[in-house]
């Protein structure tokens, strides 16, 4: 399953998201969701420990000026790669 976080993690039930993640899932943060990847935020350790692949939309990271402050555990991707993830996962959950 592809889990996409579009809202700030501070406006979302991150504990619920993490509890639903499985090893075969992918997690993608875009729009204000990219804030989850900021170093030293309260959600970072939990999402990293989930063992899923973690992605961020590169354009959203740069638009918010946070590219130097994100965890290296996240992979920056383009919107084209986002489309590839949606094709890979027949099931998707938007948060």
From TrEMBL:
<comment type="subunit">
    <text>Heterohexamer, formed by a dimer of trimers. The hexameric TusBCD complex contains 2 copies each of TusB, TusC and TusD. The TusBCD complex interacts with TusE.</text>
</comment>
<comment type="function">
    <text>Part of a sulfur-relay system required for 2-thiolation of 5-methylaminomethyl-2-thiouridine (mnm(5)s(2)U) at tRNA wobble positions.</text>
</comment>
<dbReference type="Pfam" id="PF04077">
    <property type="entry name" value="DsrH"/>
</dbReference>
<comment type="similarity">
    <text>Belongs to the DsrH/TusB family.</text>
</comment>
<dbReference type="InterPro" id="IPR027396">
    <property type="entry name" value="DsrEFH-like"/>
</dbReference>
<dbReference type="InterPro" id="IPR023526">
    <property type="entry name" value="Sulphur_relay_TusB"/>
</dbReference>
<protein>
    <recommendedName>
        <fullName>Protein TusB</fullName>
    </recommendedName>
</protein>
<dbReference type="GO" id="GO:0002143">
    <property type="term" value="P:tRNA wobble position uridine thiolation"/>
</dbReference>
<dbReference type="InterPro" id="IPR007215">
    <property type="entry name" value="Sulphur_relay_TusB/DsrH"/>
</dbReference>
<keyword id="KW-0819">tRNA processing</keyword>
<dbReference type="GO" id="GO:1990228">
    <property type="term" value="C:sulfurtransferase complex"/>
</dbReference>
<keyword id="KW-0963">Cytoplasm</keyword>
């Amino acid at each position: 399953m592809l889990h996409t976080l579009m809202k700030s993690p501070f406006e979302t039930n991150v504990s619920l998201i993490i509890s639903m993640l499985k090893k075969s899932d992918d997690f993608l943060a875009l729009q204000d969701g990219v804030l989850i990847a900021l170093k030293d935020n309260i959600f970072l350790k939990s999402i990293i420990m989930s063992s899923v692949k973690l992605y961020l939309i590169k354009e959203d990271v740069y638009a918010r000026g946070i590219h130097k402050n994100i965890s290296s555990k996240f992979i920056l991707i383009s919107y084209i790669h986002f489309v590839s993830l949606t094709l890979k996962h027949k099931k998707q959950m938007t948060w």
